[in-house]
Amino acid sequence: MASEEELFANIDALLAEEPQLPPPAERARLREAAGITQARLAQALKSTTQTVKNWENGRSEPKPPRLEAYQRLLNGWAAKYPAHGTPAVAAAPAPVAQPEVPETFTGPAAPEPEEAPAPQTPAGQAAPERPVRPAATSRRPAAKKAAAPALDPRFPHGPLAVLDGDGSAYGVDGIVLDCPATTIPELVEWTLRESGLGAPKLNRYGKDSDPLIVLTASAAVKLGLPERLEGHEQRRSLRVPEDHPVVKQVLKAKWQLTQRGFGPWARIYRKAQGRERQCVQLAILSWDALDERSWPGVAEMEPADIARVLGVYAQRVITPRGSTAVSGLELMTALRPPTKPERDEETGNWVSGYNPGSLGTEPMDPAPPEATPEHPVVVNSGWTGGFLNEEAYQWVRSVDLLSDEECLLPFAVGLDLNTAFLAAAARLVVGLSAPDHFVGPKFNPKIPGSWLVDLSHIELDPRLPSPFTPDGTRPTGPAWYQTHTVAYAQELGHDVHPIEAYLRRETGAYLDPWHDRLKNAYVDTLADLGVTKDLSDTEFLAAMERHKQADPALAAVLSAIKATVKGGVGKLRERPQGRKYKDGERWPALERPTWRPDIRAAVISKARVNMHRKLNNMAKMTGLFPLAVLSDCVVYPSPGDSPLSFLPYAASGKPQPGGFRLGPTPGLAKVEGVQELSWAVDLMEKNLNPARHIKGGDAVLDEGE
User: Fold this and answer.
1) Which of 615, 606, 395, 631 is nearest to 485 (CA)?
2) d(CA 649, CA 626)
3) What is the rounded average pLDDT of the residues 112-135?
4) Taking the C-alpha atoms of 347, 348, 351 and 355 in order, what is their torsion angle to the nearest 10 degrees?
5) Is 454 left (phi over 0), alpha (psi -120 to 50) or beta?
6) pLDDT for 97-111, tens place per residue?
7) Which of 198, 384, 415, 627 is close enough to 669 for a disulfide, judged by CB 3.0 to 4.6 Å?
8) Does residue 267 contact residue 258 with C-beta atoms inside 8 Å?
9) Could you tell me the sign of the dihedral formed by the alpha carbons of 570, 393, 456, 606, in that order?
10) Contact by Cβ (8 Å): 602, 502
11) 0.70 cut: is pTM over it?
12) What are the respective helix, strand and coil percentages of the chain, to the nearest 5?
C-alpha cells in the first residue's frame, strides 16, 4: 500500500500529464509511467474514500487540504481508464464520489464507479458503440429556462427517452441515443443495460424511478404493435389481447406485464434481484397515453420537444407512470415510502419496518360513512347511516337574490384559485391509523375524522353558499362532516354537539412533502413562463394573459402539474370500473394503502371552507356577493372588466388580507374569464353555472379533473 505522500505524488504526476492525454492505445503505458496501475488506482480510490469517511465521522486532526480533490480525480481516472478488457462508456460524464442530487433526495450516495457492473456483452461480440448525437433542431431555445436535473452517475442520460421509428431515442437536454432494438424485449434489455436512463429516489427509503420509454406511432409499428387501439371503449382503457405476438415475445423472454396488461401505459418487469430493480415503463403516444386535457398539444410535438416536456415534469414532479392522476398518487408514495430498514433486535439482521408518517403497506378499510355505497363495509354491514358528502362547490345564486345595483353592473369576472386542492393540502393533519367509533364525543378540531352533527340550525346570508354542503344549500338535519367543516361552524360562532364520530388516534401531515414538491414545481414553471412573485397585480394579469404563448411546451408542463394535483386527490377514492362489477365486491383500487377516502374528504373540506372564508370576508370588506362558484372558480359582478375593479386594496395599494388576492402561488387567484353580466344572468335563469363556462369551455374538464 502506498503511503499518503506517495499517493499524492503519484496523482500530482497524473495531473501534470492530464493536458496531454495520449491516444487510447498508449493509456496503459501512461498508467505505468505515472506509477499507478489499475489495481493501485482501485486501492488508492478505496483508501481516499475511507480517509474522507474517517474525517466525516469526527476525526479531530485537520483534513489534508487536497484529499477530496484527489478522491474526485481518482474517480474520474478510474472511469476514463478502466481495467483491460472493460469497455469505457465515452458518452457518460465521469462520475464523482459524491454526486450532486436533488434536494428531496436524502438517501446514501450512489455506489462508487468501480463497483458498478459493466454492460454484459455476448461472448465473441464487441460492445456496440452508442453515440450521443447533437440536439435536434426542433428544441426551443427556452429549454435553458428549466433547471437541468442534478447529475447522477447511474443515470447519465436522464429519466426518459422518446423513441421514433428510425431508432433515435430523444432524451432530456437534447441528447439523442441510437437504439438498435427491433422487438419489445430487445428494447427493455437495451433500456436497462445500455441506455443510462432512470432517476434517483425522492426519499432515502424509497426506490429509484424506473426508466420511461415513450413510443411514437412509427416506433410502435416497428416494434410489432398496432398503430392504434380500436374498440367500443375509450382507447385509454383498451389493451392488446393476451395472445398478441408482442405479448408472447415478452413472456417468452421471461419478462412479465402488470395486471393492466399491454395498454397505453405498459410496465414490463422481472422480480427484483437483491436491490436491483428490473422494470421499464412504456408509453405509446398513438394509443392516447398523453391525455389532451392534461398534456395539451404534447402528443403532436416533435420527439425532442416531447422529451423536453416530459423531462421537465419528471425533474420537478416524478417520472410519469401513467395518467397524471396515477402520477399524483405515485408521488405521494415516493415521498412517503411505506417501509424503512430497521434492525431486528433478536437476530441482528436488517428487516423491513414501518416508516412513521406513511400509510404503511396494508390497505385499510374506511369507516362506513367514509366509504362509497358499493363498498364491502357498507354492503356487508347493511349500513344505512348516511355518508360524508365533502365535495367541491357547485353553487349558483338564485336570480331573485340579485339586487338592482348588481344588475346594473356591466361585467361578470371569474376568479380562479391556483391549485386550490394543493393549497388545502399544506399542513393538513390526516389520520394514519384505522378509525375508531365514538358515541356522543366532544368535538376537537385537532382530531381528523368524520362527525355526525346537526348544523341545520345555522343561518347564514342566502347570497352566499352554505359552507356545509357542496351545492350551497342549508343542511336539513344531522349529517356526516369532516373535521374541517365542523371546525368552521365553530369558527363562525356556533355550538356543535356531535352525535357520534369515527376518529383516528394516529395522525400526521402525510401530504406535506407532496404539497411542497408540487408547489415548487408549479411556481417554478410559472416563473419560467414569465409569471414571477415580484410582479405587481397589473403586471401579473398581463403576464398571465401571454404565459401560454411564451412557451407552449412549458405551458403543457404547467397544465400537467395542475392535473396531477386534482387527479392525485381524486385517486384517493377511486370508484370501481367496468360493467361487470357488482356492489359489495372488492375492486383493485381497494388493495392500495393509498385508497383513503377520508384523506380526500379532508382536502376537499378544507378547500371548500377556505373558499367560503374568502367569500365571507369579501362580502364584509366590499359588500359584493358572488354569482356562482364551481370548485375553485368564483364569478363576481363587476363595474369593470378586470378584478382590479372590485378586489379590496388598502390605502397603501396593498391587497387587503382575508379576501381574494392575485398572485402566482397556490391559493392566490388569477382571472378565469370575463363576460357581460347579462350573459351570466341568462345562464343563471337556466339553472346553469356561469363559473363552468366563463372562460369559453368546461372549466372543470379543462383543468384536468
Assistant:
1) 606
2) 18
3) 36
4) 120
5) beta
6) 333 333 333 333 333
7) 415
8) yes
9) positive
10) no
11) yes
12) 35, 15, 50
